[in-house]
């Protein structure tokens, strides 16, 4: 890998995103809109919003980054741009890292806006540090980016990329502990939930909601989410194809 090539790829992707207002709106504004709607869905029960708002603050960015990243990467391949880039002295690792950095910049903006809105605009009440909340939201967005880059290698069209969401995201959403504690699930499902990164993202947000200081469990949850993001990015580089068959 080359730092200069990776940064050049990052700059190119950011220039493209700057002219794609719909994608920017989807990545940056939609999580904020969803949190806003959620707050007033539970207008008569603010404690309910407090109990699930922190978890969804991590889940919404993950989902939007997954969707946009998978489609954007697939578009590069189907248009022939990816093939032309890889014909140059640009490695797969450079390309994946460049995309991850570019979407990571967007993820920082997204996480700042969503966290700021939840805490100071919608009154989300958490005991832990707001900076830890922002950290986990950012890691979740980066995980969504990594998953999107990875699954785009297995889709032949943008429609197929969208179809991966029910297969990759929805099972994690059901088993992450958002709807019911994971220990109350059927044992097989509980065991599966331990292998899904979204479970650790929700656990980390729950720790911030309930604990004033970082705990060992929180540190473990953060490391698992970050490690999964790095692992999936590595798999994305290994499975990246020049063109869609």
From TrEMBL:
It is a multi-pass membrane protein. Residues 18-243 form the ABC transmembrane type-2 domain. It is found in: Cell membrane. The keyword Nucleotidyltransferase does not apply. Pfam families: ABC2_membrane. Keywords: Antibiotic resistance, Cell membrane, Membrane, Transmembrane, Transmembrane helix, Transport. It comes from the Bacteria. Belongs to the ABC-2 integral membrane protein family. This is Transport permease protein. It comes from Streptomyces albipurpureus. The lineage of its organism: Bacteria, Bacillati, Actinomycetota, Actinomycetes, Kitasatosporales.
